[in-house]
Design brief:
Length: 357
C-alpha cells in the first residue's frame, strides 16, 4: 500500500537554495557558442527565409552594478580590506592596528549625502582614501607574513584586485591619464567602460555583442567585455553567416561604422550588395542602388534595432544579474536565443494554421 507521505512520492521540498546558481555555473563552464548556434540553426533553418541576406550591428548588455566613480571604488576597497583585517585579528587574537577608518567612514557618508560634489571635495576625499587604502594594505601584508594561515582563493583574488585598483587610482590621481584596463568594480573586475556616445548613456558597463541577424533570427558573432570596434568584424560576420547557412551572402546591411575601405573592397570582390553610402562618381544604376540600400537600411533599422530593445525589456537583458563573467555570457546567450525560440514557435504555429486553412 502506498504511503500518503509526500516524501515517498517525490514531492519533498528542495533544501539547496543555490541550485539555480549551481546549474547556471555548470552550464556556463561547458558553453561553446559557435557549436551550439550551428545546432540551433540546423533545427530552425526550415523556418528561416532569405538566408543569403543578413544584417549586423553591435550593442551593449549592461551588468547590474552601481554607477562607478573613483570615490565609490576606493571606499569599497577600503571597507573590504578593513573588515578582512578586523576578522583576521579577531581569529588570531591579536590587537587590531590603529587606523582612521571610523573617521573617514563618517566623512565619506557626509560626502555621499551632499548634492553638489565639487572638484575640491572630490580631490580631497580621493587623496585621503588612497592614503588610507595604502596603509590598510601594508598592515594586512604584515599580518599575512607574520602568521602562517590559509584562506580561500577568493580572498587572495580580491586582494590582488584591490592592490591593482590602488596602483591604477594612484597613478590616475597623479598624472590625470585614465589607466589601461581600468577596473570599475571589485566584485566584477572583468568589466570595462564601454563608450557608446549616446546622449542618455555615454558610457555603459557590460558585455559588448556584435550580432548577426538572418530573417529576424539573431546569432552572436562576437561577445567581449572589452570595447572593440564593430567595423572590424564585418568580414568575420560574413564568414559566420556563410558557415551557418552554407550559402553565399548576397546582401548585407550594416551601420556607417562598418563602411571602411577594407570592408567596401571585401564586399565588392565577393559581389555582396550593401547599404554603405557610395563613394566616387555615380554609376549607371545609381537609382536602383539607392532603392536597394534603402530597403536594406529599413530592414536593419526596424527588425535588428527592434530586437535589441525587445531582448533588453522582455528577456531580462537590460540589467544582467549574474555574478561572474562566464555566467553573464550564458545569461546573454539564453536571452537572445529564448527570443529566437519564441519567434520560431510563432512561425511554426502560423504554418500549422496555414496548412489547416
Amino acid at each position: 500500500m502506498l504511503k500518503s507521505n509526500s516524501r515517498y512520492l517525490g514531492h519533498h521540498r528542495l533544501t539547496n537554495f543555490k541550485i539555480i546558481s549551481q546549474i547556471r555555473c555548470e552550464l556556463s563552464s561547458i558553453l561553446t557558442i559557435p557549436d551550439l548556434e550551428k545546432v540551433l540553426f540546423n533545427h530552425w533553418s526550415g523556418f528561416i527565409k532569405n538566408q543569403d541576406c543578413i544584417t549586423t550591428d553591435a550593442t551593449c548588455y549592461e551588468s547590474e552594478v552601481r554607477y562607478p566613480t573613483d570615490q565609490k571604488l576606493l571606499w569599497e576597497s577600503v571597507h573590504w580590506t578593513y573588515h578582512q583585517m578586523r576578522t583576521l585579528c579577531k581569529l588570531l587574537k591579536i590587537k587590531l592596528p590603529r587606523t582612521k577608518y571610523i573617521k573617514w567612514k563618517k566623512r565619506y557618508i557626509s560626502y555621499s549625502k551632499t548634492r553638489r560634489k565639487t572638484y575640491k571635495n572630490r580631490r580631497k576625499l580621493t587623496r585621503s582614501l588612497l592614503w588610507l587604502l595604502e596603509k590598510l594594505n601594508k598592515e594586512l601584508n604584515l599580518i599575512e607574513k607574520q602568521y602562517d594561515f590559509k584562506i580561500t582563493d577568493l580572498y587572495y583574488k580580491r586582494r590582488g584586485i584591490i592592490k591593482k585598483v590602488q596602483r591604477q587610482q594612484k597613478r590616475y590621481f597623479k598624472t590625470g591619464k585614465p589607466p589601461k584596463d581600468r577596473i570599475v568594480s571589485i566584485s566584477k573586475s572583468y568589466l570595462r567602460p564601454i563608450v557608446r556616445g549616446k546622449e542618455v548613456k555615454p558610457v555603459e558597463f557590460g558585455a559588448k555583442v556584435n550580432k548577426l541577424q538572418i530573417d529576424g533570427i539573431n546569432f552572436i558573432q562576437k561577445i567581449s567585455f572589452d570595447s572593440f570596434n564593430g567595423g572590424t568584424q564585418f568580414k568575420n560576420t560574413i564568414y559566420k553567416a556563410q558557415g551557418l547557412t552554407k550559402t553565399k551572402v548576397k546582401l548585407a546591411g550594416a551601420d556607417a561604422i562598418y563602411a571602411t575601405n577594407k570592408n567596401r573592397v571585401f564586399a565588392t570582390s565577393n559581389k555582396i550588395q550593401t547599404d554603405f553610402k557610395p563613394k566616387g562618381r555615380p554609376s549607371k544604376h545609381r537609382k536602383q542602388q539607392i532603392q536597394l540600400a534603402k530597403m536594406i537600411t529599413k530592414e536593419r533599422a526596424t527588425r535588428l534595432e527592434e530586437s535589441f530593445g525587445k531582448e533588453k525589456e522582455h528577456y531580462h537583458l537590460k540589467k544582467i544579474k549574474a555574478k561572474t563573467k562566464a555566467t553573464e555570457i550564458l545569461w546573454i546567450f539564453f536571452g537572445i536565443h529564448t527570443a529566437n525560440a519564441l519567434e520560431i514557435g510563432r512561425r511554426m504555429h502560423q504554418q500549422t494554421l496555414d496548412k489547416a486553412a
